[in-house]
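Example record

One chain of 525 residues, shown exactly as stored in the release files.
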Amino acid sequence: MAHDYLIIGAGPAGLQLAASLERDGADYVVLERGSVPGAFFTRFPRHRQLISINKVHTGYDDPELRLRMDWNSILSDDPELLFTRYSPRYFPPADDLVRYLADFAKRTGARVRYDTAVTGVSRDADGSFTVTAEHGETWQARRLVVATGVSLPNVPDIPGIELAENYVSFDPDPESFTGQRVLVIGRGNSAFETADGLMENAAVIHVVGSGSLQLAWRTHYVGHLRAVNNNFLDSYQLKSQNALLDGRVVEIRREGDGFAVPVAFERVNEVVKDLHYDRVIVAAGFRFDASFFDDTCRPDLVVDGRFPDLTPAGESVNVPGLYFAGTLMQGPHFKKATTGFIHGFRYTVRSLYRTLRQRHHGEAWPVTELGDATERAVDAVITRVNRSSALWQQFGVLGDLLLLGPDGSLRYAEEVPVGHVPDTVRAGEFGAVAAHAVITLEYGEDHDKVDPFDVTAGRKSQQDVAGLDGRYLHPVVRWYQGGGFVAEHHLTENLENEWDSEEVHRAPLRAFLTARRDTGAPVAP
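Predicted structure tokens for this chain:
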């Protein structure tokens, strides 16, 4: 007999979905190849410090606002299951996350089969899935949710790359690097985490990669290089025997007791220079392992084959009934949102759960009836943008909906994937809708092209209300009618992220919504 749901992977995403299904009394099972929940974090990051912040002291009593600064908790109905109870550290040890996930699995009653490595997945003629484990056990499921994370190292196509050590398996003990020349291939946090960890012992460290280095404090993408990992940049710019090489590794070849590595430098028109090292480490990130799918259900991939290609709802674009949860959901907005991280994907997993309940169990997406007064709509929008952690963390990816019925009534739905909105409205999944607004939090256009610490940049680009340029995170309300975009309104950004001033925020929003409802005429933001 087939289960309704089979989840592969008991990491943060798999556990959160399992907890929701368990609460509903659903028919499901979770298969986990490790012996503990979140087994990935027993090994990674290799230097054992997380870069996801854990801000215990926020000054807020509201648990929803506290989640804006808590990047490690997964969502549940149990107020005791918060990661902030497990560590006071701003950047906590990875072992604390492992301990937290084990407690989460136990307290929620998630039905997990540990030490069960999936080796094969096929799709049957009736559309259900058969999953096979390494010891020959099989399971059937009507719907399959893959929450395995990115478990394979991303290895660049470089001749001789097999001679290098890899981030996933090298010995990170700095003592073994004492007095050596080291090359780290990669431009992300794993590469710089490695370089920072070796600085006290290695004689020389070079970090190499193509393109301009992207810094998270400028791009607002938390997967770009974080300040906690970039002490190496100081040592480079202050001429302390370390260097960042902007270029492409041509090949790696053994030479004596070390390696010769020709590098084509981008700053000098691909001039190639032979450099010599004692050790070479590849730290180029991770990718999805799709090897266990057979040809009946092999999902299409994107981003150079690193992630599955998904619909906005989290379903494979080419395999109906195959869903993905967690960091594997980031393909459609790779390096543009927080979906690759717990504090982002916990909300997309919650929206996936609501989608599954809606599609397969006839359970409507939760909505709040507001009546027909515009002021109720203003109150709802202002309350949500000032409080929601989902809109805050999943900026531009999840949005609230303000739904206008043909009779003038207003309803409000929370945390719908923005890319999924047109299909849901067109299909009538929210009932009869004459027009609707999508409410998001977003950074302004070209926000990543301005140095936020350059005081002259703001003077050059002051265009919006109150002398602000609107590049920082702020609420955006977009109005749609007849299936098309009509107008948008931006609420002025605020240093404390409080968008509740009558004059600056509420009155302009009220005017915008009133005009859209009554006349359809454009109103300036």
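Notes: Residues 460-468, 521-525 have pLDDT under 50 and may be disordered.
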